[in-house]
């Protein structure tokens, strides 16, 4: 049953039904939108699905073409670049004001355990989701290269991160860096165990105890002279990782020179990047 | 036929509301259907009624609108007709008493259907003579207090029929409530075909969905999954839903070190695409008055491993054929049940096909047919002389011999009845 459509109280007035889109994701990163808009389509003017980057002026227009049962379909192939961010979706007929789309049924099963080849040198991710206002927005990432975080294991005061890189090789000088967000000059270097594109990084939280707050995690696949690659978790169907991929914090005790008891633990940022937060325990 | 549902609040979200829309939308393909909502707190219902279903309210509780009645004196005075032992008593008032009485005294429906005990009481007492009076029990007799059962027993004999969602609950009503002349019949909840293709069984995911409430016993599921993980670390578990148990479950997951295997996903609407990502569904409740999520999962092609708790699971799952029933409260049995399906791909595939086929009996079209035949039987019963039916029967006999077929007979009875009864 379709949810959240305002409907029709036929006993008083007839509110306009907002357009909705069902989204189907393919494992390559492409999205198909099937738009339903009762009475909305006018064949004499061109219709588009409009994606508008929330933080900026970027817009992408995809032609909407009629398919069965009065539906209009637009396709966003993985080959169309979509810069990283939140893309609000609209349906637009000719020069009429675009109408915000609401989510219908999102079939994202092909994204669940996504394992792209990385052969194109980048990873493109688009995850449609319902905003807190109930509208349809597409969360996009485009990372070239990319370091995907997989299983995290917390053991005592150590965190082990398993992952793999895409679009870059892990060279002999490959290493990892934890960078304090509050004190950018503080960088903790870590060793990587690598096997092909896969890596394991064990971080001793005590090395981060000198500065509280978040530490962002990066890989340097080609060593200090090569690119920095942010560790992130992107390759599944979950648009907002923070609440769902949750991990226990570890007590660090009272480090030397510290007045407070500290704890540390991993978390995903609003952009699904992996970070470690060091904070005082109340 | 004109069918009128009476519901606490058609504008909210919840199992009874969803079920009522599913049934109403389907009945509306053949009949004139309305949903009368006692309360209205927002402009639009969350679920979409079919264009043929009329939805209206009796009391307007939309704050900040001109029609708001929440502050009226009559709404502040307690209800006298709504049963005091009913869980929603506090939300009923002298105002709802009046509106319900007016509605039921003047309804032009041929069938009125109540969707909770307090409304069934109004319906039994206040419906004008003529329409069939059908009360629905969406929970179970066991879930009602002794005081409420006593209040219901005094009034329910005035119903034509009482429907339960399971045979087990129907048996409880027959055995313990003594409702002479009232047809007590189990009719399961309808569950529509999902809006996505069924699961293909390739995903190594177990899926559960429901409120994170103590009765769902997700703590047992998490512990069982700890055992699954030891044998099959490649499988993982998603639990959809929100609720008060979330923090406890989070702590349990962290204590067991299951944070790479068990995920609390939060609420999902619609849920069907989430079932379709899994290959096995799990239900570990200590009580399921029906077991809607079991049917939903089966309709998406997932075999369900469920505790054999009262009342629904055992009536939905054909044990070993389209799913697996395990003892209530037994962590080892739950993990064995899950591993049985996880470790045997051909068995899982067979059960998946069986689940799809067997769950079609819950399709709204089938459930609506069961209601239609109930309406027909109740009308026809008049011929053989039950209480309300006696009058209908005598009227019916005058023309019944000229007509064949259930609908024709039924409609004739109704027509004669409507002609006789003043409006």
UniProtKB/TrEMBL annotation, chain A:
This is Transferase. Residues 1-20 are annotated as: Disordered. The lineage of its organism: Bacteria, Bacillati, Actinomycetota, Actinomycetes, Kitasatosporales.
TrEMBL record, chain B:
InterPro entries: Glyco_trans_1, Glyco_trans_4-like_N. The keyword Secreted does not apply. The keyword Glycosyltransferase applies. Residues 202-355 form the Glycosyl transferase family domain. Residues 13-191 form the Glycosyltransferase subfamily 4-like N-terminal domain. Keywords: Glycosyltransferase, Transferase. SUPFAM superfamilies: UDP-Glycosyltransferase/glycogen phosphorylase (SSF53756). It comes from the Bacteria. One of its GO terms (molecular function) is glycosyltransferase activity. PANTHER family: D-RHAMNOSYLTRANSFERASE WBPZ, GLYCOSYLTRANSFERASE. This is D-inositol 3-phosphate glycosyltransferase.
């Amino acid at each position: 049953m379709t949810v959240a459509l305002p409907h029709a109280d036929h006993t008083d007035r007839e509110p306009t039904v907002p357009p909705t889109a069902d989204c189907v994701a393919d494992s390559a990163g492409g999205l198909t939108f099937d738009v339903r808009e009762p009475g909305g389509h006018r064949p004499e003017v061109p219709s588009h699905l409009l994606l508008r980057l929330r933080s900026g002026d970027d817009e992408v227009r995809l032609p909407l073409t009629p398919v069965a049962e009065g539906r209009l379909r637009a396709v966003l192939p993985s080959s169309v670049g979509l810069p990283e961010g939140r893309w609000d979706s609209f349906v637009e007929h000719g020069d009429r004001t675009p109408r915000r789309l609401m989510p219908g049924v999102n079939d994202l099963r092909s994204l669940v355990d996504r394992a792209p080849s990385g052969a194109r040198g980048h990873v493109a991710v688009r995850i449609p989701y319902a905003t807190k206002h109930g509208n349809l927005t597409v969360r996009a990432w485009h990372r070239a290269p990319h370091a995907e975080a997989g299983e995290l294991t917390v053991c005592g005061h150590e965190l082990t991160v398993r992952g793999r890189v895409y679009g870059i090789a892990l060279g002999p000088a490959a290493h990892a860096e934890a960078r304090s967000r509050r004190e950018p000059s503080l960088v903790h270097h870590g060793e990587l165990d690598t096997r092909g594109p896969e890596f394991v990084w064990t971080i001793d939280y005590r090395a981060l105890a000198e500065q509280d707050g978040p530490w962002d995690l990066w890989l340097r696949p080609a060593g200090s002279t090569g690119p920095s690659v942010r560790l992130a978790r992107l390759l599944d169907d979950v648009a907002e990782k923070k609440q769902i991929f949750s991990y226990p914090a570890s007590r660090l005790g009272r480090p030397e020179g510290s007045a407070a008891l500290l704890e540390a633990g991993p978390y995903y940022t609003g952009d699904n990047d992996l970070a470690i937060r060091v904070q005082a325990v109340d | 036929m004109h069918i009128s549902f009476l519901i606490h609040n058609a504008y909210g979200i919840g199992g009874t509301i969803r079920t009522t829309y599913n049934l109403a939308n389907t009945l509306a393909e053949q009949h004139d259907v309305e949903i009368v909502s006692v309360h209205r707190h927002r402009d639009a219902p969350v679920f979409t009624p079919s264009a043929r279903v009329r939805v209206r309210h009796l009391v307007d509780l939309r704050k900040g609108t001109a029609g708001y009645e929440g502050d009226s004196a009559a709404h502040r005075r307690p209800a006298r007709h709504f049963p005091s032992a009913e869980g929603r008593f506090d939300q009923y008032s002298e105002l709802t008493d009046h509106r319900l009485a007016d509605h039921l005294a003047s309804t032009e429906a041929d069938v009125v259907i109540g969707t909770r005990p307090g409304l069934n009481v109004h319906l039994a007492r206040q419906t004008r003579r003529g329409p069939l009076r059908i009360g629905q029990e969406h929970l179970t007799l066991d879930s009602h207090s002794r005081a409420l059962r006593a209040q219901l027993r005094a009034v329910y004999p005035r119903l034509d029929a009482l429907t339960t969602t399971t045979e087990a609950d129907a048996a409880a009503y027959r055995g313990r409530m003594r409702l002479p002349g009232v047809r007590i019949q189990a009719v399961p909840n309808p569950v529509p075909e999902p809006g996505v293709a069924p699961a293909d069984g390739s995903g190594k995911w177990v899926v559960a969905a429901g409120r994170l409430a103590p009765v769902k016993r997700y703590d047992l599921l998490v512990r069982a999954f700890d055992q699954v993980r030891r044998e099959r670390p490649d499988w993982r578990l998603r639990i959809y839903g929100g609720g008060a148990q979330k923090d406890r479950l989070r702590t349990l997951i962290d204590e067991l070190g299951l944070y790479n295997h068990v995920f609390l996903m939060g609420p999902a609407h619609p849920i069907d695409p989430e079932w379709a990502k899994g290959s096995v569904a799990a239900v570990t409740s200590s009580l399921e008055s029906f077991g809607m999520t079991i049917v939903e999962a089966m309709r998406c092609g997932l075999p369900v491993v469920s505790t054999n708790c009262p009342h629904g699971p055992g009536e939905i799952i054909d044990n070993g054929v389209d799913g697996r029933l395990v003892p209530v409260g037994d962590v080892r049995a739950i993990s064995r049940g899950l591993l049985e399906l996880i470790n045997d791909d051909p068995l899982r595939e067979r059960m998946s096909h069986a689940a799809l086929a067997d769950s079609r009996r819950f399709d709204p079209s089938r459930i609506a047919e069961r209601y239609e035949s109930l309406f027909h039987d109740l009308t026809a019963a008049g011929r053989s002389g039950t209480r309300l039916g006696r009058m209908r029967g005598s009227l019916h006999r005058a023309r019944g011999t000229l007509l064949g077929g259930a609908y024709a007979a039924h409609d004739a009875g109704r027509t004669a009845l409507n002609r006789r009864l003043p409006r």
